[in-house]
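Re: that chain you flagged

S.,

Sorry for the slow reply, it's been a week of failed gels. I finally had a moment to sit down with the sequence you sent. For the record, here it is as I used it:
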Amino acid sequence: MKETLVDSALANLLAPHNVEAFLQNHWTQKGLFISSQGDRRFDYLFSWKKLTELLNFHEFDFPVMRLALDGKVLDPSDNQHFVKRCQEGATLILDRVHKFVPEINQFASALRYETGHPVQVNTYCSYPEKQGFRCHYDTHEVFILQVDGCKQWYVFPDTFKYPLINHKSVDLTPPEGEAYLSCVLHPGDLLYIPRGHWHYAVALEQPSLHLTLGILCKTGIDLLEWLINDLRDQEIWRENLPLIANHPDLHINGLIQKLAQCLIDRDIGSDYAKFLAMTERSLPEYAFPYQAGFQIFAQGMQTQFRRPQYQQPEIQELVKDEAYQIRVCRKEVKLQGVTGTFVHQLFSKEHFTGAEIASWLPGFDWEAEIQPMLTRLVTEGLIFVEDLAFV
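Prediction finished late last night. Pasting the structure tokens below so you have them in one place:
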């Protein structure tokens, strides 16, 4: 995680707690409760009304929608009667609500952009004095954003450092003794729980509604898995190892030496960072009818354009082709015959007009050369027409 985030989504999430102090003293190490002092600062993200709209206008199947009661997840068939189960005190869970609520999606995308790790947001609706889950740990970093009601939380130390997704807490015994952190979350309060730290919670007098924001941090194991997939394209790594009688240790030692040389010759850190940037989608953005190729230049050269939020383009100069290769997430476009100054301007500014673009390309014809290039950038989703774009 970056260590100098100022006026960022993470800073806003942790406010008034200092980001640097959080990263040094709590991140991956120790839980933290942050009181909002009565400021219902998460109301803009979610509410009972938004939950009701989701349930009314979307169909959620198991396991996206789950019910939990008395420490266990109920059978998927209970989803057909989820209102009755809620009346009986079951906790209602909706996974990945950031895919359905624009405000949450924008916030999650900002955090993903800042931290460099995938972010997922679930919502939990709990009822008084009913415990949905027994004491357990999660295999990702957890932030609890209390939206409404009050909930009592208990956080215990880890008993297994840095568990991966296959290291289920159900297979282990919770720690004995008192919780090192016990707190009641009111609307606007925040609770951070590190990966692997045991915890459980109980709603108090009124129904509780909270968002769980999970940061699914990549690990050294993920790096190795990426490297293995990357090496699959090389014939030497697909070759059979020798039979036992033919001393496979010599062959294996040779492979290890080749691997070591590969690590020396390549900038693995940079390559993996580029891979993550290319494979992780940020805030979904579509703008029709423009992306279908229609009405892009209704305002002529005064058409307003913008770049998508939370996307870091990879720009490569192709000297022989006199072109620039632009990669953003899973998108790739080659711009032929343009200057480095133009590419820098285009991908460093958030907002610009057709007239500004024309000024960056002196000598280019607006209709014959610039419009076709902008049309391609819009239809590929690298830039957007401003007025009807999803923001």
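What I noticed first: The CA atoms of residues 66 and 79 lie 7 Å apart.

Talk soon,
D.
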